[in-house]
Structure formats: structure tokens, C-alpha cells
Amino acid sequence: MAKRKSKSRDIERRKKVKQEQDSQLSTGLFNGEISQGNEEEVEEEDVANQDHQGFVNWENEEQDYELRPRKLKEKHMVESLPIKRQDGTVQRVMREVISKDQSEDEEDEEKEKEKEKDKDEVDEEEVDEDEHSHLTPQERLIKTKEEIAELASKLIENPEENVSCLTRLRKMSESRNFMTSQLAIMAMIPIFKSLAPSYRIRALTESEKREKVSREVARLRQFEQNLVVNYKSYIDLLYKHSKISYSNSSNNNKITSDQLKKGNLAVKAAQELSLSSLRHFNYRSDLFSILIKRLNKKPKHAQDLPVFVKSIRVLETLLKEDEEHGDITVDIIKIMTKTIKDKKYRVDESVVNVFLSTSLLEDYDPNSNKDATTTSKPKLKKKDRVHLSKKERKNRKESKEIEEEMRVAQQAITVEQREKYQAEVLKLILMTYLEILRAAGQSPLTDESARGQDASSLMGSVLEGLSRFGQMSNFDLLGDFLQVLREIMLDIIEEHNVEGGIYTGKEIRTMLLCIATSFSLVLNHGSMGKLPIAIDFSTFVDTLYKITTDIALDPDLELSHKSLRLSDPLGEEAQEEGQSVKPAVNVSTKAELLLRCLDFIFFRSKNGTVPRAAAFVKRLYILTLQAPEKTSLAVLKFMGKLTSRYDNNLKGLYNTEERISGEGNYILGIERDDEAMVKLERCNYGAATLWENVLLDSHYCPMVKDGSRSLMKNSKSEAR
To answer: Which DSSP helix (H) or strand (E) runs through 84?
Structure first.
């Protein structure tokens, strides 16, 4: 009976000590270490308890620490170079040298402190378990919920007075009990959202700590320090749990199901905090890192996929809403570019597509040096003016001048800082795009089964990003982009000539995107007056001429990711239920990309000539014979537009009665296997005849039939 009473007294004593410790900070981030008053009280109670239970009286016995040898910490000083002051006097400088033995002793002391801290936490959990040992699991759950609700209500009612409740909740979130930890983590989300301000709380300087302040200011400072310390520990806990997921822990038997659930719960908590005002609070880079670290690889497990998609949406929302300031965008882009580079660009393309949501760069023009003009307000009529005395008018004029100066100064600082953020974000994004293109060009993938394992799978996202942000780059970087795009196309053609066969759908899309992106980059620079020289596009034009006939053989010419079709059951791209894969952020079909490239060549640049137009018309007729209905109609309309531009220069292709060319035969190019690349200038277009137009007159589609007849009719009318 005496043992039970002593045990109950011991539990009550430890519980009391624990509550007193919770009222203070558990870590010394801003202020010094916690005072040792509570520990001395605990030691006095331990001594009294041990004397009561018949243990040895320590007052009459020599303590262990008194038998230990004393170590004097002597500072070893070494004289450094002297400093000469402004008044001419020379000051002697001494610096302290820390020996290896002294540094090892300090490390041992830190390790001992960490062990003692871990031991105290374990003792607290054991006290809680002993206290609730007589309750059933259901009663324990109810008891835990009631305690968490009580702590949360106290914090909401009076956070400055009950700041110790926040420390208690944070310790409960670190509990080894899964249910207690889970409930505490979820409960702290709305608490931090309501307590934390929409600005950063800086650390107090040493002079600020020593100065005397009022009781209200001291209480507010103590609350803010407690809030920051507990929030940092909470973010570290979320980061620790978020590393564990179902996808990367499938082969690890040591990880339990509770840890997996905590991993997804931690990411969901970080998502909730990122969308709140805590995006402007302290340690937001650590908060964003929790989301971005989960985007290293697209998860294959069903329970990780919603968390992955939600993280993408949260980052896109943050980038879209940060249009005015830019500080959040800089933090996100820095972490993302570093993560993508560390993963060697083996990430999902949806991660790179996040860059397209950057609203900070929408109004950025690096070449504009225009000063912000202030809009003048219309003058009031004499009858609408308020009568003021001479003194009031003078005071009003002075106050207006002061307000105007402050507004202009504040606006200048804001604009300057925002332009600095814009330049930094643009540099990070463009350098990442260039490195991805170089990595993809070194090892282009033609195997569809290897999709998603190399930088070549990010080609569509990068090219779409270049077409949007590329015009903001300087001329030197533009040359690097064009060189990389040219190498990517030539590598695909060279590999195709060695292996033979026809181009795959992925290869055709990549080459069309390279051509469209190169023209888009140069035209955007030209419209801004940034091109001092002319750029040769003959390689891109020849490549388009080369692959025009192969485009018609692609079965997915008019299909996109939104098309209703069955996936290949034998391929690795077989989709899960309800999921559809987006091939690239540029969702245009290959037919749309082809027409876009043709429009760039003949109508939006100076690369269109009569020989090129005639050669392309012949190839486009060959494509129309094999292409689907919608593509054939679009190509016929484009050829009608092309014929109207070059007037009578293309009439010889439709009519052979006026002249008979004896200068050789038309070289189609696709029948020559020994030629590495068909040159557009060598096809002898003057000897070509559009006999495909007669075949199109028997086409099954009435609209295609009418289109071919109208082209023939227009050519005859022009000839007359």
C-alpha cells in the first residue's frame, strides 16, 4: 500500500513539474536557456522522497560530482596583425585559439544535453501512459480529444496568457502515440492560422533584450518568441514526416502504416498552411520545401497521387496570386530549380509546367526604361471647391507635398525591388530551360517505354515555356537556345537515318515544337527591336520539308490528350481509371503545329520564297492524300492562301499545257535512302505537277472535293 501511495505521489509531482516546464520555452532560440529553478526543486523533492523511503541520506555523504577532477578552461590567446585607427594610433589585437581537446569537450557536453533532453521527453510520455493506463482505448481517445480541445480554446480566448498551451500542443504532436500525434498536428493548423500575423517576426537584438520595457510589451515579446519557436518546431516535424510516402517506402518493411499516414497528413497540413497568411510568416521557405520535395517523382501509388496533384495546384495558386510583390515567387522558383537540378531533370513534366503560372513576369520588359507617369486628377469647378482660409490652404499644400514625396519614394522602392525579383526569376527559369534542353539533346529518347526517366520527356514543357518567356532573354542567350534546338532536330534525323523506319509520334512532335519555338523566339525579339543581325532559318525550313510526308503517316495526327480513345494495354503508359496523360503543356495537335510552322515561314517572317512555296505545295498535296479529313481541309485552305499571295508564280504546278519542262525530273526525296537529308533547293520544283489534285477530286469527303476543285478553278482563272 505504501508503494502505491509513493508511486502516485511521484506521478503527481512529475506532472506538476511538467506543467511548470510547459509554461516556459523548451528551446533557447531567442532568449537564454531555461532557468534551473525547477530542476533544483525537483532535486530537493527527490532527496526528501528518498529519505522518506529509506534511501541513503545524501547530506551526510560526499556527492559524486565533488569527487570529479576540476577542469579549468584556460583561453589560449595569440597576437594578430595590429589595426591602425583613423587618428593614427595603432591598436593591438589578440584572438583566441580553440584547441582540439577543448572542441571535443564542448561536443561531448552538447551530446549529453541532447540525451538528457530526449530522456526527459520519454519520461513525460511514460507519465502520461501511467496516468491513463487504467482507461480503455476509447476512453483514452476521448480524454485526448478533450485535452486538445481545452488547450485550443484557451489559446483562442487569450493567447498571450495561455502561450504554454501552445508548447504543450506541440509536444503532443511529437508524441509516439499515433492518435495523439495525429490529433495534435491537425489541431495546430487552425491555431497557427489564427495566431500568426501576416508578416515576419524578427529576433530581438542583445540591446533590445537588455532594455527596460513595459509589462504589456514584455508580454507581447514573450508571446511572439514562443510562437516563432513552436512554429519552427512544428514545421520541422512536418518536414520529417513528409519524407515518408507510400511510393518510396513500398520495399521498406521497417516503415509502419502509421508512419505512412503521418507522411500524407504532414503534406496536407503544409498545403493548408501555404494557402493561408502563413505564406508571409517566418520559415516560409521551409514550408514550401515540404511541398516541392514531394514533386521529385510522380507517385505510382493511388494514395500518393491526390497529394501530388494538390501540391502542384497549391504552387500554381501561389505563383498566380503573387503578381504585385514577387518575394514568394522568388522563394518557390529558387527551391524548384535547385530540386530539379539535383534530380538530374528526372521529374514529371507537370512540375516544369508550374513555371508557366508565374504571373510576376507578365508585365516585365527588361529593355524598357520608362519612368512611371502619374495620372493628373481633373480640376474641380469653382462652384464645387470648398472655401478655405489662407492658413488652411497653406497647411493643406504642405501636407500634400509631404504625402506626394512619401508616395513617390515608397513607389520607387517597391518598383525597384519588384524589378529585381523579376530579373532573378527570369534568370532562374531560362537557365533551367537551357540546361534541360542540353541534357535532352545529349541523350534523346526514342523509346516510349522510357518516357519520364530522362530530360527528353520535358521537351514539350520547356519549348512552351520558351515561347512565352524567351522574348525576355538577351541576344546571347537566344543564340544558345537556337543552337540547342538545332542540335536536337539534327540528332533525331541522324538517328533515324541510321536505324531506318518512319518517325514516331514523339519525334515528330519534338521537331515541330523545335521549329515553332525557334520562330517564335526570333519573331518576338524582332518585334522588340533586339535583333542586330539576320538569323538563318534554313535548317529549320529544311527539317520541316523533310518530315512533311512522314506527318501523314502518324495515326494520332488529329488526336490530343482530350480525345476519347483506348490506351495501349501492352504499353507502360496504360492509364489508371479516370486519369488521362497530357503529352505536353502545348496541347496542340501535330496538325495544328504543322500549320503554325508553315504560317511562321510564309506569312510572319521573310523566309518565304517562290521556290520554297512551290516545293512545299507539292509536299502538302502528298500529305493531303493520306491525312484525315479535318487536316486535309485545313491544308487546302492554307494552300489557297499561299497561292493568292504568290499570284501567278505557282500556276505552272496546276497546268502543264503552257510549258513542258525539259530540265530534268522532280525529285521527291523519300525514295532516296542514301541521302542523309533532302535539301529543299535540290528537288527541281519546276518539273513537278500537281496530279494529286485529280485524285482529290474523287475524295470521299465532299468538302475536300470542293476545296480541290476551287484551287484548280482559281489557277485556271489566273492563267487566263
So the answer is: strand 83-84
pLDDT digits 0-9 by tens, 197-229: 888 888 888 888 888 888 888 888 888 888 999
Q: What does 485-551 look like in DSSP terms, one character per residue?
A: HHHHHHHHHHHHHHH-SPPPHHHHHHHHHHHHHHHHHHHHHHHTT--SS----HHHHHHHHHHHHHH
Side chain identity at 73, as an amino acid letter? K
Give the max Cα distance, the chain: 129
Contacts of 363-372 with CB under 8 Å at 24 or more apart are 364/419, 364/422, 364/426, 364/472, 365/472, 365/528, 366/423, 366/426, 366/472, 366/474, 367/528, 367/530, 372/411, 372/415
Vertex 260 angle, CA 254 and 264, to 5°: 155
Q: Using the predicted structure, report yes or no on whether residue 445 has a pLDDT greater than 50.
A: no
SS (H, E, C) 326-392: CHHHHHHHHHHHHHHHHCCCCCCHHHHHHHHHCHHHCCCCCCCCCCCCCCCCCCCCHHHCCCCCHHH
What's the pLDDT at 216?
87
Q: Which helix (H) or strand (E) holds 83?
A: strand 83-84
The answer to whether the CB of 455 falls within 8 A of the CB of 440 is yes
Task: Please tell me the distance from the alpha carbon of residue 552 to that of residue 628, in angstroms, as a whole number.
Answer: 8
Question: Does the structure show a pLDDT above 60 at 452?
Answer: no
Q: Report the C-alpha gap between 537 and 543 in whole angstroms.
A: 10
What is the DSSP secondary structure assignment for residue 649, as one 8-state letter? G
Q: What does each C-alpha distance from 59 to 47, 69, 318, 680 come to in angstroms? A: 9, 21, 64, 104
Distance CA 285, CA 293 (A): 12
Mean pLDDT, the chain, rounded, equals: 76
Positive or negative CA dihedral for 107, 108, 113, 119? positive
Question: To 5 degrees, how large is the angle CA 423–CA 429–CA 432?
Answer: 135
Q: Record the cell numbers describing residue 293, joined without a space.
A: 520535395
Dihedral of the alpha carbons of 523, 527, 531, 534, in degrees to the nearest 10: 50
Strand partners, 76: 97
> Where is mean pLDDT largest: 200-214, 278-292, 579-593?
278-292
As a whole-number percent, the residues of the chain with pLDDT over 90 amount to 9
SS3 96: strand
CB 112 within 8 A of CB 118: no
**Given a cut of 60, is residue 62 above it in pLDDT?**
no
What's this model's pTM, rounded to 2 decimal places?
0.67
Find, among 485, 487, 504, 484, the residue nearest to 496 by Cα.
504
Q: What gap in Å lies between CA 232 and CA 228, rounded to an integer?
A: 6
Do 508 and 554 meet the contact criterion of CB atoms below 8 Å apart?
A: yes
Q: Which residue has the cell 521556290?
A: 611
Instruction: Report helix angle 505-527 to 475-499, nearest 10.
Output: 160
